[in-house]
Specification:
Elements (H helix, E strand, L loop, with lengths): L7 H22 L6 H14 L3 E5 L2 H11 L7 E4 L5 H9 L3 E4 L22 E4 L11 H11 L2 E5 L7 E2 L10 E2 L6 E5 L13 E5 L2 H11 L3 E3 L2 E2 L10 H11 L2 H19 L5 E2 L7 E2 L5 E5 L5 H10 L29 H9 E4 L7 H14 L2
The structure holds pyridoxal-5'-phosphate.
Pyridoxal-5'-phosphate binds next to helix 3 and helix 4.
Length: 378
């Protein structure tokens, strides 16, 4: 039996009646842009994350771009961000006319290494944009301390990390907080393959700052606070009612689904842990991984392409997130990035492999993947 990266058909089958009812309700009420479903979903998501405000937008990418603008990032400003992430992180910065300044990652969590941020700060730096890659929280404690010291904004890319949580400092018995609530804004993506996926594009910004929330509402709606009175150049970047209705249904299951992902991750650790050339993902003390992606590291020199081919021949999907670090991308060639600039990121791009993970995955399927990996490089 084949094993996809995510099984959205199995998920739909488990909530079909709820979804069909919600979709019908939106169509019958004919409130497709904004409206009560979007407002209710914003309320519920703010509650879930523990943020005072939540503003729905058209995608995770636009959540990042609008959050930067809403926090006052201007052309020429510098934003420190990791090179090991999806292009959207840096693209949002570039689309604001600002400049992504890369800082290398931690080899264990694959997230921005706080020890390497300060050397990247210049008089033009205005913001730090950490990414909670794969669903593991970035080390927000030290990041927030650096931001406070240099008076920088912090915008969290939570596209892969909805539901992940972080505690700081670990030693004191503090309760963990959801990612997205540490910085000035947290950006969510509802791309279908994310932990909470819509049936199309969607995104959201959570924030504790009323002024940022007001700016976001204006920016997403053509720069207007009042219809047809435009204060700033804005966007058409709204979450639509059908997506909000679907996401409201799914949000009710999110806690169980994340538990399911963590169960699958624990099974993978059990079965892959015995294979010497595979390193399973870590979970730092005080951090709660949501396992949007289950990403292992292969021992240097393992033929990753051959392994993927062999898995694929058995119907097992796998992906490389991401094969080219952003400083080596053609789009950023003019910034002069070259091989060797970010060795930790470059090593990761050559060694990571993401395996299928979804809440409905069975122990037998995990065993099947683990066995296929063991066989492939025996
Ligand atoms: C998916 C993703 C985005 C963009 O989200 P979209 O909803 O696809 O626009 C941004 N950053 C990261 C890290 C992502 O994984």
């Amino acid at each position: 039996m084949s094993i996809p990266m995510v099984d959205l058909k199995a998920q739909y089958a488990s909530i079909r009646d709820e979804i069909d009812g919600a979709v019908r309700r939106v169509i019958e009420n004919a409130q497709f842009i904004g409206g009560p479903e979007v407002e209710a979903f914003e309320q519920e998501m703010g509650g879930y994350c523990g943020a005072a405000f939540a503003v729905g937008v058209a995608s995770g990418t636009e959540a990042l771009q609008l959050a930067l603008l809403a926090c006052g990032i201007k052309p020429g400003d510098e934003v420190v961000t990791p090179p090991f992430t999806f292009i959207a992180t840096a693209e949002a910065i570039t689309q604001c006319g600002a400049v992504p300044v890369f800082a290398d990652i931690d080899p264990l969590t694959y997230n921005l290494d706080p020890r390497l941020i300060e050397e990247k700060i210049t008089p033009r730096t205005r913001c730090i944009m950490p990414v909670h890659l794969y669903g593991h929280p970035a080390d927000m404690g030290p990041i927030m301390e650096i931001a406070a010291k240099h008076r920088l904004k912090v915008i969290e890319d939570c596209a892969q990390a909805l539901g992940a949580a972080y505690t700081f400092p670990v030693s004191q018995s503090k309760s963990p907080r959801k990612v997205g609530t540490f910085g000035d804004a947290g950006c969510l993506s509802f791309f279908p393959s994310k932990v909470l996926g819509a049936y199309g594009d969607g995104g959201m910004v959570v924030t504790g700052d009323a002024a940022v929330a007001d700016n976001l509402k204006m920016l997403r709606n053509h720069g207007a606070k009042q219809k047809y009175y435009h204060l700033v150049p804005g966007f058409n970047s709204r979450l639509d009612g059908l997506q909000a209705a679907v996401l409201r249904v799914k949000l009710r299951h999110l806690k169980d689904w994340i538990e399911g992902r963590r169960r699958v991750a624990a099974l993978y650790a059990k079965y892959l842990g015995k294979i010497s050339y595979v390193t399973v993902p870590c979970e730092a003390q005080g951090s709660r991984h949501c396992y949007n992606y289950y990403t292992v590291r292969l021992k240097a020199g393992t033929d990753r392409g051959a392994l993927q081919k062999s898995l694929s021949a058995q119907g097992i999907s796998s992906m490389v997130y991401y094969p080219v670090s952003l400083h080596l991308q053609a789009v950023y060639a003019a910034q002069g990035g070259k091989k060797g600039d970010f060795p930790v990121s470059e090593k990761a791009q050559d060694e990571v492999l993401s395996l299928p993970i979804y809440p409905e995955m069975t122990e037998q399927q995990v065993v099947q993947v683990a066995e296929a990996i063991r066989e492939a490089t025996r």
